[in-house]
Known about the structure:
Elements: E1 8-10, E2 17-19, E3 24-25, H1 31-38, E4 47-48, H2 50-64, E5 93-95, E6 118-119, H3 122-132, E7 141-142, E8 161-163, H4 165-184, H5 197-204, H6 208-220, H7 231-244, H8 248-255, H9 259-275, H10 277-282, H11 290-296, H12 300-306, E9 315-320, E10 323-324, H13 331-337, E11 338-339, E12 344-354, E13 359-366, H14 372-382, H15 387-390, E14 396-398, H16 407-412, E15 416-418, H17 432-456
Parallel strand pairs: 9-14, 14-15
Antiparallel strand pairs: 1-2, 3-4, 5-8, 6-7, 9-12, 10-12, 11-12, 12-13
Amino acid sequence: MSGSARKFYCCFNCPRRVRQKDRHSVPKKCRAVITKLSGRTPSDRDFLCNKCKCVCYYYLKRKEHPNSSRPQDHGKKEVSSAPSAPPFSPPSIRLPFPCTSRGHAMCCICKRPGPKLVVVPVDLRHRIFISKEVIIPACSRCCPNHPQQSIQDLNPVANTTTFNKTSIVQLIKFLRSEVMKSEKTRLDFNNSESLTDAEYLDLLGISKAAFQDLLMYVEEMKVRSTPARSVRTSLAIFLMKLRGGDSNRILSTLFNVSKSSIHRAIKSIRTALMNGRFVTENLGFGHITREMVIQQHTRPLAQSFFGDAGTQQAILVLDGTYIYINKSGNFKFHRQSFSLHKGRPLVKPLVIVSTTGYFVSVMGPYIAKNNDATILNHAMKTNIDDICNLVKEEDIFVIDRGFRDSLDYLEQMGIKAQIPSFMAKGEKQMATENANTSRLVTKVLNMTNFVLLLKKF
């Protein structure tokens, strides 16, 4: 028989729909039990599902043998067991909340048919009730991607919902825990309306819309939420760590979670961003072409001063920076990462940006004993991040005097280096052309550093 020709019937006691061959007429000895459970008197034309029939016989057995006990092993004293609660509580309380479909054949959210459907988690059903005021019945099924993504459109099929005692108790306990949790919460990122766009910028350094876009990259990697923190909270912890560099103890106080939970949140978000699409689509020489650097990320002033009017060159600004770290317990690494110049342990990444301040790539980090010239020579010789395919002859590197030992190697590759000029031995004043070039290079470096500083803060 085809699926369209099948007939389904509703059970007299519960709203379950069963097939014709699975229905059972109401026995005369069970009618009193059914009347007590449902509050209605069944007729000869009514029927029960298999589960409700078993419940009726369970009640009858308890009535006939009220002091019955479980069978004991031979030689052991028989111990009477107290009457236990019934295993099933039929839904009989109607509340004015919209309800979705409760079948297993199709998704209760998008109505897509199976077979690859999963049971809707309890926490997701409760979250939808809080945000949308829509009830998803227990054991309902949905598509596998719905628990990871935000649900925008829900189509309820009924304006009322039938509850039983267990569902109401479970819902009340969840609402009580949410109220207690909200009283203890200091920074709440789960509710997008609790903080304004200006507060997002102050705390995280990005706007609310950018936070939502970044959250999509994180949710693609299926980062799990825990009872202590959600995925939104974990991402906010990670961004606040990058923003201000606060200790885990301070973040633990602000978010009211333990230090170990702060550590796990930062690690999970960092792993998700590194292994996902975010880093590969926004950083590195593979995410941008040479034409895009020239056309979209090169200032006309820099192109007019450093470039050639006939042929357009790619102009990149290179500079090394410091990332301070804690003292390592590994003695060898501590010796390599300790900087005599700064007097503290650090690592050195090489930042490559355009003249507009757009991040093209970040190489490293390198240990503290390497200077800028050593890092650049190593990157060009080993072709890190496929840099040699983007950089061609006659391109321009704007660098400072820390790269002076790389000038010969860059000249062999055909790359023009714009660097502040040095005074020759015995000179008391620079020539006019050298002084103007040095001032312009210094101005471009300072302007780029200022743009990077604005992006950071």
